[in-house]
Amino acid sequence: MSEAKRRSPEEKLAELNKKMEQLKAQKQRVQAQLSQKERKERTRRLIQVGAIFERQFPRMADFTLEQVSELATALGDLVKEKQAAQTAANKEGDSK
Q1: What is the pLDDT, as a whole number, of residue 1?
Q2: Residue 27: closest CA among 39, 15, 35
Q3: Where would I find the H helices in 9-64?
Q4: Residues 6 or more apart in contact with residue 38 via CB below 8 angstroms
């Protein structure tokens, strides 16, 4: 039994290298699982957002991608304008 415990430095190094490779492989598997989970969550979110827009704009299914992009840009501009107006109103209210 004492022979099994006594390993040369080379054997110890080889064992540690093997463990490092196993840990690297395990890390890669976990990272792949995490990436897959994130992709699935993003896909689900994109589908949900698309469904909301189709519900609000029933004819959206007939739109080209360019038209959808233009609509999104216009909505984004409206949101920015509204936020700017609210910020200005809040600052005006604070200064009084």
Answers
A1: 46
A2: 35
A3: 9-56
A4: none
Cα-Cα-Cα-Cα dihedral of 51, 55, 58, 64, to 10°? -30
Give per-residue pLDDT as tens, 17-72.
999 999 999 999 999 999 999 999 999 999 999 899 889 888 988 999 999 899 89
Report the candidate in 76, 11, 73 with the shortest Cα–Cα distance to residue 3: 11
The pTM is what? 0.62
SS3 25: helix
Structure tokens at 37: 């989970």
Q: What is the pLDDT of residue 4?
A: 59
How far is 43 from 81, CA to CA, in rounded Å?
Answer: 29
Cβ neighbours of residue 15 closer than 8 Å, sequence gap 6 or more: 7
